[in-house]
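Rotation project, supervised by the postdoc (A.L.). Task for the rotation student: set up a whole-complex structure prediction and record inputs and outputs verbatim in this book. Inputs entered:
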Amino acid sequence: MNVENPAVQGSRWLLLHAVLVFAFLYVPIAVLIVYSFNGAGVGGFPPRDLTLKWYRTLFADGAIWESVGNSLMVALGAVVIALGLGIPAALALDRARFPGQALFRRLVLLPLILPGIITGLSLLMLFNTAQTKLSLLTIVLGHGTALISVATTEVFAGLQKLDRAQEEASLDLGANYRQTFWRVTLPNLKLSIIGAALLIFTLSMDEIAVSFFLIGRNNTLPLEIWGRLRRGITPEINAISTIIFVFSWVAIVLWYRLRVSTEGPQETAAELVESAVQGD
Amino acid sequence: MFSRAYRTAVTAPPLLWVTVFLLVPYLLMFCYSFWSVSASQTMVHSWNFDNYRQLVTVPVYWQTLLRSIWIAARVTLFSLLLGYPLAYFLSFHAGAKKDLLYQLVIIPLWVSYLVRAYAWKTILGSDGVLNTLLQYVHLTKHPLEFLLYSPFAVVLTLTHIYTPFTFLPIYASLEHIPRTLVEASQDLGAPPLQTFWRVVFPLSIPGVLAGATFAFVLSLGDFLAPLLLGGPSGIMISNIVVSLFGAAYNWPLGAAISLCMLVLVVGLLFVSERLEQKWSFS
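Outputs recorded:
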């Protein structure tokens, strides 16, 4: 007798499907890492002449490290702008009622789902009209503006869980709004804010579509890599990609731990996609 | 409990910023789309519909737009076919490994877009990893040329990128389904497949809609994957916009195309939101 329960059979197919999807997601990343050690170039099976020479080339490559420095500055600037405006925006959406609030919410969240090309080009037209010279500063403004959406979503989620009684108590006991904000509201939002900052930093480091149109003389790291991809490829790009992978992996795991400690795991990350689509 | 001054203090700065850096640029895009460029390459601020007329009458524009929609539709379909069963497996069958597997899905999500597109380029090229592997095991004698520089490569890469995004909201909606509903259906004698189609699937539709909209809109506007992997037959609408803002120097026409995309996106969001409300039971 070999008749199987259809539910068990079904779950076997699901398991097989899951294994294949994970392979689809991870094989390209694995290939990338393996070939960063491949002496014979980016292609060719099997990999041969394992070597660290591409990493040595990379560490001696001034242009790459200059662009890394630029990207770090841009990402820091983007975090400052996005948090500086995203925190008040989340407070405004949570606590104030004003005409056009629905439009404001939609507008803030729009860059999350809008293809980067539209955000990039519309800002390019703004800077062109205002006769602003394109530079790293214009990229910072672009990233900062686009990523207010992330800060707002994350902080708003934190505010939903905030116990308002604490703020009320603080106000009743004679603290003014400023003191209450710095000593009660903000500390309670600490985890949301750190999580948002990590996410904004990572997204800015990787951003290319908006930067593509706002770039001046100095390249960010993704644009530097992009330029090299157009000129012909060497495993040096695999090497820098491997390093980027390790760093974004660490950042995402950190962010995930933070989010899990503030709310249940199943909510994590999904609401970014949902709020992008639904605008609430 | 919050004073008027407090509310103004938190509302005014973001409102002002969003107006200057989001609303005004979209309005500028709208204005540009009615202007034109003179023979001496200066902007002419005369208002007319010539750019929009060109979009309708010159085949390359609407044909490329249709191709982009077709590519985005395939990416959406494949992302759903990969993402939905995975989400279902994690939510209903993964047991204690659920949390670990969930993390494994979201890690690639924020691994550099460019890095992953590049990885596919090194895999699919004519002397890339896949072709040399196939020759190594003697499955083929000559490299398969259709793998890279084709719409296939673009669809494959974008599916790779958007599958985790599609997975997320589906998984969240599956996790929110009360398990008692599923048990009730089983207790009342419904076979597993019927329970899925009559109970689980309808409740997960809002998640499916959110994931599908996200994948469709972002792959529709992509221009980097087509540039890197698409070749001449994989050109998408945003590539035309890029060239209009670059070498071709026709910003007004590029603005008209971008504005059409913006309207399309906002329209889709509107439809998706309505459908989600219709299917949301909570």
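Student's summary: Chain A has 13 helices and no strands.
Supervisor addendum: The mean pLDDT of chain A is 86.
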